[in-house]
Amino acid sequence: MITLTGQGLTLKEMKEVLYGGQKVQASDKSMEAVKKSREAVDRIVSEGRVIYGITTGFGKFSDVFIDQNDVQDLQLNLIRSHACGVGEPFPVDVAKAMVLLRANALLKGFSGVRPVVIETLLKLVNHDIVPVIPQQGSLGASGDLAPLSHLALALVGEGEVFYQGNRMDSLTAFQIEGIQPITLEAKEGLGIINGTQAMTAMGVVGYLEAEQLAFESELISSMTIEGLTGIIDAFDEDIHVARGYQQQIDTAARIRSYLSDSLLTTQQGELRVQDAYSLRCIPQVHGASWQALDYVKEKLEIEMNAATDNPLIFDDGDKVISGGNFHGQPIAFAMDFMKIAVAEMANISERRIERLINPQLNDLPPFLSPEPGLQSGAMIMQYVAAALVSENKTLAHPASVDSIPSSANQEDHVSMGTIGSRHAHQIIQNARRVLAIELICAMQAVEYRGVDKMATQTRRLYEKGREIVPSIKKDRIFSKDIEKAAEALKTIDLTTFIQQFNDVK
């Protein structure tokens, strides 16, 4: 059981909840802060104080005073009117992360919601009742208003959810699990939807996948080095320490570890003096991607524990401030950095694929074909990889440099962070397929070299890979192999390869 406090939630804990079946609960201390914050809201309403979103309308309507008898209608109207999301729903793990993150933010005790709101959110997490939330429609600045409104609809019994593999009305799932929908009181609709949890949830899931992929890229490229009889000297520790980037040093160390007992690597001058950059510069390129991913991790773990709604309530209600913590710029930048980092891992992987299949660049059978000419082998796999990395280059265009005014120009600068997070997710899926193609080609190449000469670690990867994708003995429908290999890369237990994967980086 993971106890949420509104602070200290980690990506490792998110992974345990989303994929490990871990349950969550709220800390008693945090709930006390929530109660005090709620008492402050009740006083504001009873005293008729003019406070944005509590006794006023929203956005451009912030100057419209709302009578206390209308506060419930105000909050429900907010949710209904803002639930304008369109497009395909967010993946289930992303939507579940959204619910968890919103509960954690409210537990900070600055939002003025009742404990029952948080309790209901946590019931959704623990019972795997996941709101259906359309992906498109957020500008990423006034909070993720449209996506989070669909989350709120589920809470009040008007939305849809995924439950036990089915899509249904939230009320139906609630009845099965004995959960009561909530009636929103003053500030609560705004407290639920005014936040960055859509972009952050997508970022969390994207980061967890990108981190797994980054480690796998080093394993797969190590096998490629063997398939191309690569020069191991380029990974010598002294080279990387001389430059000083820790991520580069670590990448080189892992590759040396993977290839430590390989009989397929060579020394400089043995077959050639230098390898091409896509082999020789793996630590420099992959290490730079790790630098960006480390930045992304840092920003996500801050945002996961941030109060991002508006207004925020301090000093038992004596200080209620309208600010802009809902603005997604920090996460927008982080998502754009993650897009670039993962796109580059795919770019260099595609170049290694080319070196594996191009007879002008190696001494292997052309296109790794069992019968060159009669059978095309891996020829078109490289086409697919090239198409995917080219698509990634378009998706990697930074979303955060764009802005467009909204709410009659009251909200005149926005982050587009949710768009950035969605594009990052697409890039990761494309990159995984590119690396799957490299794995298929690398396995074929080491077969020609001699599997018995492989390093212990890479041979274990080879054996796992061959359980999924058989050796190319004749042409077949390779799209099936690519998809199977890509799916397997989602679930490889990296701890079986090296101890340092035990903890999330």
Could you please describe the fold and organization of this structure?
This protein has 505 residues and is mostly helical. The protein has two domains: 2-195, Fumarase/aspartase (N-terminal domain) (Fumarase C, Chain B, domain 1, Orthogonal Bundle); 203-308 and 341-407 and 414-498, Up-down Bundle (Fumarase C, Chain A, domain 2), CATH 1.20.200.10. Helix content is 54%, strand content 6%. It has 18 helices and nine strands. The chain has a three-stranded antiparallel β-sheet. The longest helix has 33 residues, at 417-449. The two termini are 22 Å apart.
Outline of the structure:
By secondary structure, the chain is mainly α. 54% of the residues lie in helices and 6% in strands. GO terms for molecular function: histidine ammonia-lyase activity.
Shape assignment = elongated
Largest sheet: 3 strands, antiparallel
* CATH architecture group name of the largest domain: Up-down Bundle
Summed up, the helix count is 18
CATH superfamily of the largest domain: Fumarase/aspartase (Central domain)
Essential attributes:
elongated; 2 domains; mainly alpha; two-stranded parallel sheet; single chain; Fumarase C, Chain A, domain 2; Aromatic_Lyase
Q: How is the topology of this model organized?
A:
Layout lengths: L1 E3 L6 H9 L4 E3 L1 H20 L23 H12 L3 E4 L2 H15 L8 H12 L3 E2 L2 E3 L8 H11 L4 E4 L2 E4 H8 L10 H6 L3 H31 L9 H7 L2 H13 L18 H4 L1 H22 L8 E3 L4 E3 L7 H29 L21 H17 L21 H33 L6 H13 L9 H12 L16
Helix pairs in contact: 3-6, 4-5, 4-9, 9-11, 9-13, 9-14, 9-16, 9-17, 11-13, 13-14, 14-15, 14-16, 15-16, 16-18
